[in-house]
Amino acid sequence: MKLTLLGTGDFRPYRPLGSAGYTLTNGDDMLQLDFGRGNLVNMAKSGIDWTVLHAVCISHVHPDHISDLFQFLQAWTVTNAWKEIDSELVIYGPRGFSAFFEHYRTVLVTTWDKLPQIVEIYDDTFTVQGFTVTTKSMQHSTDCNGYRVEAGGKVLCYTGDTEINSNLLELAQGADVLLTECSGKNADELLANQYGHLRPTDIAAIANQSGVKKVVVTHYPDDPAERELRIAEIAKEYKGQIIRGEDLLEIDF
C-alpha cells in the first residue's frame, strides 16, 4: 500500500498546512481517510485523481477533519451531472453521521441529482474495493471512529482523534503502520482526559503493546520545533521507526 499525507496540521491555520486527510492506494484501489482543510489542493499537487475515488471514511465531524469534504462533493455531484464521470461514491462515518450529512445536504447549494451513498458504521467490518476495513468507536469529545485498513497483506491503523483505549489497542494489533494524531504533549492531562486526544507517551504505549512496526505522526501543531519535541518524546519509549508526518509525504509499506 501507499499512504499519502494530504494534511498533517491541526485546527490552527497558522502555516500553509492542510488538516487531517490521508489517501491510501493499493494498485488501482483508492480510499480516503478524512477530508480536512487543503486536502483537495494537495491531492492535485500529489497527482491523485479525485474522480476515481470511490470511498471516503470519516473519523468524526469536527471541521478540521471534514472541511474539504463538501468541496469534494460539489465537484463530484456537478461532474456527475455533466456526465463527465459516472462513478459510485460511498461515504462511511461514525454514529450520527447519516443525520449530520442529511442536514448539510439540505443547506448546501449544489447539484444533488446523484447522491453519494451514506453508510453509518461503527464497531464493524466491511469491504470496499480491495480494502477490508474494521471500525471501532474511539473516545473523543464527539462520536469518532478509528479504522483498521487491510489490503495486499498490509495493515494500517488510523486513530482518528481519541484518548488511549482498548478499542484502539485492538485495531492497532500487529499493524504495519500506526497513523496517529499527536495533539498533546505529555504534560497535557486536560487535553487527553477531557477532550480525548493522544500524547507521545500514549502513542508509545499503543505501539509497544500492539506490536506496531512503524509510527506515522500527524495532526499536531505546525511549529517545527514542537513537532520535533513530540517525535523525541515518543522515541524515549518506543524504539521502532517513527516518521514525522509532513504534508505531501508519501509512504510505501
UniProtKB/TrEMBL annotation:
Alphabetical list of Gene3D superfamilies matching this protein: Ribonuclease Z/Hydroxyacylglutathione hydrolase-like
Record-level Gene Ontology MF annotations: 3'-tRNA processing endoribonuclease activity
Residue ranges of every copy of the Metallo-beta-lactamase domain listed in the record: 51-220
Xref: SUPFAM superfamilies: Metallo-hydrolase/oxidoreductase
Any Pfam family hit: Lactamase_B_2
UniProt cross-references to PANTHER family, sorted A to Z: ZINC PHOSPHODIESTERASE ELAC PROTEIN 1
The name this protein goes by in its record: Metallo-beta-lactamase domain-containing protein
Upper lineage: Bacteria, Candidatus Kerfeldiibacteriota
